[in-house]
Amino acid sequence: MKKVFSLLSITCTVFVFSQEKKNDSVGKLLEKEIQEIEITARRKLVERKIDRLVFNVENSTAASGGDAMDALRVTPGVKVINEKISIIGKSGISVMIDDRLMQLSGDDLANLLKTIPSDQIKNIEVITTPPAKYDAQGNGGLINIVLKKAKKNSWNATVRSSYRQSTYPTGNMGADFSFQKNKVSIFSSINTGNGAKKNIDNNSFYYPEEKWENESPRKVENKFLTARLGLDYELTNKLSVGFQYLGSFSEMNIKENNTASYIYDTQDDLKSYIISKAKSNEKPNLNQFNFHTIYKLDSLGKKISFDVDYFSLRDKNTRNYNGNSWNNNNVPQSYFAAINNNNQDITNYSGKVDVELPLEWAKLTFGGKVTQSKTNNNVIFYDNSSGTPVLDVNQTNEFDFTENTQALYFSANRKFNEQWEANVGLRAENTQTKGYSKDLDQENNNTYFQFFPTAYLAYTPNDKHSFNVTYSRRINRPNYSQLNPFRIYDNPYSYTEGNPFLKPSYTSNFEFIYTYDNLESKIYYSYEKNGFEQLGILDSNTKITRYFVLNFLKTYNIGLTENISFNPVKFWTTTNTFDINYTKSTSDTPVTLGSLNGWNTYLSTDNEFSLNSQKTLSFNVGYWISFPGVSGVDKVSTNQSLYAGLKFLMLDKKLQLSIIANDILKTQKPVYTSYSNGIKSTYRNYYDTQFFTISLSYKFGNQKLKVSKHNFGNQEEKNRTGK
């Protein structure tokens, strides 16, 4: 007899044996009846584990039908502002996919995440104090994107397409295929897209004798193709091997046709202005390979895994710009034109071993990793003001950078009883770097060895209450491009320059978390030293802005976060977050303010509505607001966003139609105010966050397919390429 209890998404089969005595004298039992009970239960939208918060993306309407960036926008505890990702109350986070670090930055990270359909994501883990097993990279913690797995002895396929309308349209198409039978698992995925977005950078510089108003609208055209292919094979019951390939090929064309700088006197009368245009072309091509083996020592969970990884990145970037300066009578004063090329070549090798030993008294994990990264940046500058490109050797440079890292880690987890659980870990990383500028004939070497401890203590007196105390120490290494000492010009009045003497920053994080039923209260404290970020250094004489990366910050942060998720009525799930924190930053460079402190407050609400009893029609609406506060040595204005979504499931839930609207009121426009050499500057940027998306996907095959996927072991080094 089979009984089915439909409570939604996790399935388990329980065999119940009804037994009676066969012989009272010997006490033998006879199996009389087997009942198979299939239970399907729905995971909560938000779950709390000992070291992380888990957001189940597959249960979210707002995240469906989009990409990984859309899913992160509605993840509790995460902020996405102008495509910059952060954890509430934290800075310097890293992003992982299936436990592999992907430390990309800015547009490069956003562009990669946009190639991952949100319907492939099972959940997103927000890890504010990561355990010792993970690389120590990421000052503020980690965001782990967990992709869906598949079941054995079946196959599955999905085809999908989407259309997004922001300022310009964007189209995406993709397909996935998975197969697993007996000892063989195969998985593959391909995604392609073509479209554009409009980014607008506005800034104002308040010099003593004049004010500069700069406007820089950009049309960013992007077409991409990404592909994944993997194979896993069980050689024996104990030994399995596999490989994975990831390829990413894209081309971006950036057009800046109306960049303008207006110069006003102290009476706000126009003195002169500069009009320029630019065209950039970038072609990053990435190929990455992974080979892995897993050896099971026994059937109780003891195992050893090995990973060998290689990736190469080839990136060609060409920027061509020209313009005129004019007086207030519209008479041209001067003409400028230049071509700025930057070719980048990065290779990385890594190997790692991980051991898991669940023992009677504790679960032990330990292992090690070695990596080597080599990068070559070749910056070539041509003066094109005469119409014929002339090489400028003073602004041309080739820069080589090599980094070697060796790491060991150990952790132990013990559950003393039903109420108490503890975890302690220690990671050691030893790093050697060498940077060499050929044209400057300048070599910079650096060696550092650091320990990164972690600790967790959990007390759970009953099902409704739990207490957690955590500690971790983290490191934030600069991206390779930030170490390149040469200049890349946007125009004659603005350039970016790397710093070969840049050092990592370090952060200590403490948290106390109390959970009562669906309410989570967290008190946190962090201290970052040797912090670095890019500064806009203004010169009041030349009016040139130099964007330069520098170690100059110490930041203290203490705060309180409240999260609550509950069902006011059966068909409505609401998840709400409130955060307030006090931040103090001190600077050791005279370029900026000596210190800045203040309060930051953040509120968000996300609401899921199931509109019919079959669970095939759902609606989502959410809103978040970040009130005026501080970030480093910058003051930040109010920033907010309203979003909504609809999801329709048809044809026995195989066909899904999703409609998403983001930043409906077009209010995601933060203003940053800072001081450089005593000169006030404001930045008002908008990155096309108001958009409408409609997507369609169809699943066929066996929906219970499960594929065991293995991921790359050198994602940290790949991510720091900035691609």
From TrEMBL:
It holds the Pfam family OMP_b-brl_3. Keywords: Cell outer membrane, Membrane, Receptor. GO terms for cellular component: cell outer membrane. Its main location: membrane. It is found in: Cell outer membrane. Residues 296-698 form the Outer membrane protein beta-barrel domain. This is TonB-dependent receptor. The lineage of its organism: Bacteria, Pseudomonadati, Bacteroidota, Flavobacteriia, Flavobacteriales.
